[in-house]
TrEMBL record:
It is a multi-pass membrane protein. Gene3D superfamilies: Spore Coat Polysaccharide Biosynthesis Protein SpsA, Chain A. Mn(2+) binds at residues 269, 293. This is Cellulose synthase-like protein B3. UDP-alpha-D-glucose binds at residues 105, 134. The active site is at residues 134, 499. It comes from Liquidambar formosana. Keywords: Cell wall biogenesis/degradation, Glycosyltransferase, Membrane, Transferase, Transmembrane, Transmembrane helix.
Length: 551
């Protein structure tokens, strides 16, 4: 019997698609035959035939690219139950939720997404959830405050009874236990209580939506008085803080509305994601980050474990810069007449791209390595343990010197203080980082930690409130000036489809990526209900990259 600690965390399985390959080749043969026919009879038909030949040549070329992309389709089978045997301490994860307009994106949908993330099966002291509200709406903040109160009851309930669906609106719409004999009386009683609490949450949010102001703008809400949607200072509120670092408690929950001014470009979602990255870097600085849209709730409570199986179990980390999960929609129309389930894209193209180590970044449902988002290449990542000079240009082998002094001084407590002061040499590392990442000392220090790969244990993750001032600094609209944010660092600017440009930039540095398709699906969202609403995101997907192809 194999040693449990030696078993792999995941398997890479090649899908059998012989019939599909045969069909693709037959179609390619027919296309080439048509081109040969056009050339052979070109003299008899003149310009019209030539024009048809050029068009068909282009379609043949596109079909050839399509075949090559989906030829070798793979999927990854993960084993979350083996993580505890292979990994002594799980890494922290920062979770990002983005929303922009409470009228277009109802707060109850955002709230359900946030609650589903807070309730995932992962140590609560390893998680932090940051919600970016680009609309600066007191309604969104009010909804999150009320949701945090409900989450304190909902999260223990889910983990106690192993509830499969952690988004309450989906759970209560599909589950009915009142007449079932398969549940204990204790569960039925708690289920009824949770249903009443959720109905009360919905009522409060619905009443707030109907008002011009969701509540009196005093206390924590005073900052929302007299602000404009596109003209306001940074607003950062720690809604809930897991100060005790409880394993089974409620993860941190932070509300963020970055500073916006009329004469400063905000770069849409890419700008919001970069602000989230910097703020979380100052506060918790987890080595992995998850980003989801406000309408994509966590459908599989084990998704963080599944992703960690890929990040931590892969042989070479250069093959896994990010882990992308597909966009799956519930309540779609039968037979998908508008194509908004993206079946071909998810089932064939994405799996095929994963087969060539290049799963496409889709802008949501994606786990990232923080150092990759910071612009680190695979070669720099591999060199960091040997010499950090490749990053900061100081020429000092900091890791070697630190390890040497650690051995030398570890024999006495007094000398450990000497080692502590020697760590001030880390400022050598910080020099050069401010040119790319900005002039925040707190963020520069966290960036140096990320690049070095140290597992430094500080009170950062359990004391978020003490970093609020530093967080406001990095959320300022002028912070990115004269830095590499949006060009070499973070989400890339220059297109409304920041996901495609960012993914291409990551792959261009030499990183690979993985397509994660657990069962049940990792995330789910509401499917567009009409052809027009389907066409809007499709138009952005097609035309977005072409607006700045040389970014």
């Amino acid at each position: 019997m194999a040693n449990p600690s030696s078993l792999p965390l995941h398997e890479r399985i090649t899908r059998k698609n012989t019939i599909q390959r045969a069909f693709d080749l037959i179609l390619l043969f027919l296309l080439f035959s048509l081109l040969v026919y056009r050339i052979a009879s070109l003299n008899n038909h003149g310009f019209t035939w030539l024009l048809a030949f050029m068009c068909e040549s282009w379609f043949t070329f596109l079909w050839l690219l399509t075949i090559s992309t989906k030829w070798n389709q793979v999927e990854y089978k993960t084993y979350p139950d083996r993580l505890s045997q292979r990994v002594p301490e799980l890494p922290p994860v920062d979770m990002f939720v983005t929303t922009a307009d409470p009228m277009l994106e109802p707060p109850i949908i955002t709230v359900n997404t946030v609650i589903s993330l807070l309730a995932v099966d992962y140590p609560a002291n390893k998680l932090a959830c940051y919600v970016s509200d680009d609309g600066g709406s007191p309604l969104t903040f009010f909804s999150l405050v009320e949701a945090s109160k409900f989450a304190k009851l909902w999260v223990p309930f889910c983990k106690k009874y192993n509830i499969p669906t952690r988004a309450p609106f989906r759970y209560f719409s599909s589950e009915s236990v009142s007449s079932s004999k398969n549940y204990s009386s204790e569960f039925k009683q708690e289920w009824k209580r949770m249903k009443e609490e959720y109905d009360e949450l919905c009522r409060k949010i619905e009443e707030a939506v109907q008002k011009s102001k969701p509540c009196d703008l005093t206390g924590d809400f005073a900052v929302f008085s007299n602000i404009e949607r596109k003209n306001h200072p940074s607003i950062i509120k720690v809604i809930w803080e897991n100060k005790e670092g409880l394993f089974n408690g409620l993860p941190h929950l932070v509300y963020i509305s970055r500073e916006k001014r009329p004469k400063h470009p905000h770069h849409y979602k890419a700008g919001a994601m970069n602000a989230l990255t910097r703020i979380s870097g100052v506060m918790t600085n987890a080595p992995f980050m998850l980003n989801v849209d406000c309408d994509m709730f966590a459908n599989n409570p084990q998704i963080v474990f599944h992703s960690m199986c890929l990040f931590l179990g892969i042989e070479n980390e250069r093959d896994c810069a990010f882990v992308q999960s597909p966009q799956i929609f519930y309540d779609g129309l039968k037979d998908d007449p508008f194509g908004n389930q993206y079946f071909v894209l998810q089932e064939t193209m994405s799996r095929g791209m994963a087969g060539i180590q290049a799963a496409m970044y889709q802008g949501t449902n994606c786990f990232h390595r923080r150092k990759v988002i910071y612009g680190l290449s695979p070669d720099e990542s591999e060199a960091k343990m040997r010499n950090l000079s490749s990053i900061n240009g100081t020429g000092i082998n900091y890791n070697f010197v630190t390890c040497f002094l650690l051995i030398l001084f570890s024999c006495c407590d007094l000398c450990l203080h000497v080692l502590h002061y020697f760590c001030l040499l880390g400022k050598f590392i910080e020099k050069g980082l401010d040119k790319n990442f900005g002039n925040s000392m707190d963020f520069t220090k966290s960036t140096a930690e990320t690049f070095s790969g140290w597992k430094v244990k500080t009170d950062r993750s359990n004391n978020l409130s003490s970093f609020l001032e530093a967080a406001r600094q990095v959320a300022a609209c002028e912070y990115e000036y004269s830095t590499s944010w949006g060009t070499k660092v973070g989400w890339i600017y220059g297109s409304t489809t920041e996901d495609i440009l960012t993914g291409m930039k990551i792959h261009a540095r030499g990183w690979g990526s993985v397509f994660c398709t657990p069962d049940p699906p990792a995330f789910q969202g509401c499917a567009p209900s009409s052809g027009l609403t389907t066409m809007n995101p499709n138009e952005e997907m097609v035309h977005g990259p072409s607006r700045n192809p040389f970014q």
